[in-house]
Amino acid sequence: DTGVSQDPRHKITKRGQNVTFRCDPISEHNRLYWYRQTLGQGPEFLTYFQNEAQLEKSRLLSDRFSAERPKGSFSTLEIQRTEQGDSAMYLCASSFRVEGATGNTIYFGEGSWLTVV
Amino acid sequence: KQEVTQIPAALSVPEGENLVLNCSFTDSAIYNLQWFRQDPGKGLTSLLLIQSSQREQTSGRLNASLDKSSGRSTLYIAASQPGDSATYLCAVMNSGYSTLTFGKGTMLLVSP
Question: In degrees rounded to 5, what are phi and psi of residue A100?
Fold first, then answer.
């Protein structure tokens, strides 16, 4: 399978615990994105990387959230001291961006469901 | 701030009908527009990508059009099938940015 893969697919955690999600993008894609989606809503942008550099972060990304993409390959999204409002699906996506182009297709993974109890 | 609106929010049709899903956006300065399909509890599957310089794209029974100046796009589905039942999401990528702004989606149900 050469698509975007995410792990774990489902996570139930108690309020206050830390959780980490992993994303493996499509091979050789230089851009990696994290989005969050709640029921009945479209995905909302959290952050994105160009290779290993984190180029943009949404205001939705509080200081409890941190994302990394060491070596420009896989990425992790960590949520510290989880709150019930963090319950959502966390989607990872990747694309290959050529500078000057108007954008290529962005491919999404299956998502990681987080439930905070 | 870019806002994307999708109408209708939900649509129920009998199998075989042709249907149109609508998407509108407030800021016409976009790089491209992408239509996605999402099955319940699943991730997003890309259907069509329309660059800002294009007017339409076709893939099988799907046809997407883009009128950038009026801030509108439509997704036309021909001869709908029960397997088309899903939520369809429209997303735009703004010029100067590298992220997508999504609508809330249209939930489609095609009954046999």
Answer: 95, -15
- Cα dihedral sign for A87, A88, A89, A91? negative
CA atoms within 13 A on the CB side of A58: 17
Whole-number Å distance between alpha carbons of A109 and B19:
28
| B32 interfaces chain A, CB cutoff of 8 Å | yes
Do residues B15 and B112 lie in contact, with contact meaning Cβ atoms separated by under 8 Å? Answer: yes
The Cα of B81 is separated from the nearest Cα of chain A by a number of Å equal to 23
Cis peptide bond prior to A70, omega within 30° of 0 = no
Residues in chain A: 117
Confidence band, pLDDT 50/70/90 cuts, at residue B94: confident
CA nearest to B52, candidates B66, B28, B24, B32: B32
Residues in chain B closer than 8 A to A96 (CB atoms): none
* Distance between CA atoms of residues A77 and A23, nearest Å: 8
Query: Which of the residues in chain A have pLDDT under 50?
Result: none
* Residue of chain B whose alpha carbon sits nearest to that of A55: B98
